[in-house]
Known about the structure:
Elements: H1 2-5, E1 11-14, H2 19-25, E2 34-37, E3 59-63, H3 72-85, E4 90-94, H4 107-116, E5 120-122, H5 129-134, E6 137-140, H6 150-158, E7 162-165, E8 180-183, H7 188-196
Parallel strand pairs: 1-2, 3-4, 3-6, 4-5, 6-7, 7-8
Helix pairs in contact: 3-7
Amino acid sequence: MYRMAVAHAKGIFTFNRDDGPVMRHHAIVDDRHHIVQVPGSGIDVEAFSEQPLPSGAPVFLMISRMMRDKGVHEFAEAARLVKREYPQITFHLVGKTEPENPTGVPEETCRRWMDEGILEYYPETRDVRPFLRKASVFVLPSYYREGLPRTLLEALATGRPLLTTDMPGCREPVIAGQNGWLVPPRDAEALALQMMK
């Protein structure tokens, strides 16, 4: 379908450095196509302005669609592992469940994690900025092939370091050790270890 859709395109925009080579490898595009990488769809940097980091124990925040391949289970498992060593650390999970999605994480699962005391779950919001202000680190443990997640850009604009996976799109805005850290996908233990560091 991609091959048909771009057959007569003169230019193709990608959000990360991985998509162009993958499209060439799979013969979706060829030498006739001009690929331009742009840094995402953009965000409102006035709305998402830099905020001071909160005081007190660290708060790890994940904002995402509630899907397995966004790394929701890995976030919860990492929270469980970290809280064994550092019970004062807080984990916030924000996002709407998608019951019709085959990879959707049911709301009951999110509520169970909350009942266990490993995280605080917020099913939906129209404004993520209050959650970003309260966060110390923004986490997206996705193993889904991303374009360039807006949540990562919003977190960076707010002045929050990123903890995300070494996956297309996710790794794009991270300068390791300067504005964030990368961990292997589907690895809750590596995620928890980096959180504890």
